[in-house]
Amino acid sequence: MVDSPFQPSFQPLAGVAESTSIQAIIDGLGMMPHPEGGYFIETDRDPRNVPNPFPTSNSNATNGGSSHDLTRSASTTIFYLLTPSSPQGHFHRNKARTMHTLHKGRGRYVIVHADEEEHAKPVRVETFVVGQNVDKGERLQWMVEGGKYKASNLLSDQEGESKHNSEEGLLISEVRFLSLLQVTHQWELFPDFTLWLQTVVPGFDFADHDFMPRSRLAELVSEKQNKELEWLLLEQA
Question: 179, 99 in Cβ contact below 8 A?
Fold first, then answer.
């Protein structure tokens, strides 16, 4: 059996304890539940601030956004974990581009290219598997540009398993990037950033994050895709 791109391999199990091996990862890293689903822990936040390249307000921003809208931390890094009990990262988007790196497990990402809707509708929907089987096209690292909605779901450790199994969940790390073109006018404020000629890394803030409403998915994709993808929406969005 080949993993279907738009069907869940695991159903969320609210209140069900994680396995011993997965709980050891959660405890060892000090992780906490994430609003998107799964677990996370911020492992670094640069004490330096940079001008906020996204100063406009976001009425749909996730609760917890910073009130200091003029600046952002220069960089942040997190671990993010999906588990059999919390196997879905629901559709959301960030204003900055995000680099993802795989550490453990397998999963599927779905990207809705909402930033392209001026050129074509329905917009492009991209899906790919992240995992260690690079010879089969699985990815170890992937970039998601700002303005695109993304969702993720946990897959079995081995493709084709008749009984879905994930020993240690899907563990990744994320770093957010900002195109230099977006901050060219601010460059002279940071002469010590000479090693960052291609990119600048602004820290994450929930003010730059929002979930996809059900009506928005229907606007962006075809009716068939809408039915296939709606299970990846956060119900409260």
Answer: no
The DSSP result for 108-152, as a single string, is EEEEE-GGGTTT-SSPPEEEEEESS-GGGT-BSEEEE-TT-EEEE
Structure token pair of residue 199? 């990119």
* Nearby residues of 235 by Cβ (< 8 Å), 6 or more positions away: none
**Number of C-alpha atoms within 13 angstroms, CB side, residue 47?**
0
> What is the rounded CA–CA span in Å between residue 63 and residue 20?
32
Predicted model pTM:
0.80
Which residue type occupies 226? N
Residue type, position 61, single letter: A
Q: Which residues of the chain have pLDDT under 50?
A: 1-3, 67, 179-200
Q: What are phi and psi of 21, to 5 degrees?
A: -70, -40
